[in-house]
Amino acid sequence: MGMALRRHGHEIFLGASAAEGTTLAEQHVPDVIISDICMEGGDGFSFLKAVRSNPRTGAIPFIIVTGHPDTDGQMEGFKNAADGYLSKPLSLSVLVEAVQSRLKREELVRRDAVEIKAQLYRVLQAAPDLIALVDPETLSIHFLNAVGRRMLEAPEQPDRPLTSYFSAAAAENLRKHAATTALKGGCWTGETVLIAPSGRRFQVELVLQAHKRFDGKVEYFSVTGRDLTERQENERALRGSEHRFRCLVDALPEGVLMHDEHERITFCNARAVQLLGYAPHELLGKTLNAIIRSATLAEHGPATKKQDTKAIQLSPEHFAVRTDGTALPVSLFRERLQVDGSDMGLCIFHDLTERKRMERERQEFEVQLRQAQKLESIGQLAAGIAHEINTPTQYIGDNTRFLKDAFGAMVKVLYQYEALAKSAASGTVTPDLLQKVDAARQEADVEFLLQEIPNAVDQSLEGIERVSKIVRAMKDFSHPSGAEKTPADINHAIESTLTVARNEWKYVADLETNFDKSLPPVPCLPGEFNQVILNLVVNASHAISDVVKGTDKKGKIRVSTSRMGDWAEIRVSDSGTGIPPKAQPKIFEPFFTTKEVGKGTGQGLAIARSVIVDKHGGTIVFETEQGKGTTFIIRLPLTL
Known about the structure:
Mean pLDDT: 82
């Protein structure tokens, strides 16, 4: 066997007895041991026990070879940590393969051990505390990590014992008390002061841990040291940070409350104290529901419950109860927190008193602004409406005067015919009478009157209808909206608005309408919707006017309605100048206008957006191309 293994490049040490084998293993520490069970001075099992009990040889792979295999023998071998069991007769190739396989396995184990050692070394070097390996007898340092070298101002290979970094009394205590305690109990923990070569002193917490070999003898001490100076500095920094945090939180314009999982208040800032009128000690310990009373709050439940979302933004319609019992309108923000492993809740509340006052003022201003804009529109339309009414009124008057004159002429003819009828009845018709009748007919031009009187009546009726239509449209347009939306026929509403605005567009554009007759009533505020359509049509006519000014051409305004799913869509298109790219982002901003001074206030589209988006929950967008025109697209929901 020895020759076969040598031929494969292995160095062989041969022993004839268990004692000789034990000695060879101690001297050479081979990569693998192959032993027969039967040998002089003992058997293979005693040899195996001796190898395993020696710290120097305990990890060497051990293969047992026997010519009398039995179950008890195999159990004995495995019980004493044998790594293999080969039976005789044994071919040399099997032996060589077994050795080669075992050596390869050991090589892999060694590589893993080297990698683990390297990883452990990196972990020790990266540790935030001092870590050292110390001789248990001399207390000389065998290893010191990077933090330890920095703390002790030591070189890469420390050349001083651990006691040299202690005062004389502390070194004596280390040797007599700490080391003795570690040797007996395995560990010693305490605080002491270390002294660096530069004379710098710093307090540390030391842990001295004894590590034993297989035979129970202590092989080395591990020393872990934590710099308490740094911790104390951190504690001071933390206290400073807490103070700054408190100052910051107290300076917030919002009230801040923190509570535990039972919603008992555990923290309040200065603003919360100011808003609620309580002293800090009066707030602490109260339940949140005693301060913030809201159905929404109760509905959501405590913010620390697991089923809640991480953060809850609640409705602004909440009230905080002040110490005098008055209610303070607030908006709330709540969030669940983990503080030192405990569930905590954060509640931030903002005083809405000023916001509500400003909101009321804003609403009042918007009402006034819309009313002013509506009055402005009516003022602008007044002359046009007067003109629209004046035209049919004028020819109604002309036709009426014509009918009056025609009636007078016909009366004269009728008088002559009446005289003729009486003479015919008495049989006294004279040529002179006939001549008078004929003269009256010619003077009245009866044939002309018979032809023109029906035309005059028809024209007068048409004029009356046109006036009535304008009056009805004006009435529909100016009808005040209620506070609540009502279903309305927007096709009719748009048609009325177009009629009212006719004088604005008829000289510069032709109007095309395409109304979806199947469109159901749309919930809206009719008066404010009419104002939006008027603003868009007037804007369209002004845009077209800039294009056709100085020519005899006309542009085109198209107005259409349609249903798009659950929405009613209204489109107002013009063939005007289009909206310049720079103006497009600002087109819905209040007081922004592209018109010349005196022609626009910049309120029309801002009010249109407010009415459509804010009051109706709809949308208003536009499509534009410079030089070709603009289309405004309004969508209103068909359901409330």
